[in-house]
Amino acid sequence: MAVQLRIGVFQRSCQVFIQQVRHCTASPVGAKGVIAGTKPTKMMLTADKKYSWCACGQSKKQPLCDGMHKVMKTSFQPVRFTVEEDKEVWLCNCKQTNKRPYCDGTHKQPEIQAAIR
Question: Which ranges of the chain have pLDDT less than 70?
């Protein structure tokens, strides 16, 4: 019985994952990635260091890219950026921002909050 229950949970997890992959891989140019989180990440960035912000939403190292877009064969590319001086910023995790890679408050919308519950 316990084995069947675990398989059922695994199957549900796989179904959710497959739905996310379909959403991510079927996205046209300019589309937004899968919602990875409903709150931004506060980060201290170092001047002139190169950063790669995850645009597809599949990275396990959110909000930064870990190359998962290549593994998943998505059309998304990370947003590469630097800052001119050391500073603290809020990076978007919902991937719906219009100020990539920075949070613009889009995560506060009810449909974004409801996406991960």
Answer: 1-30, 117
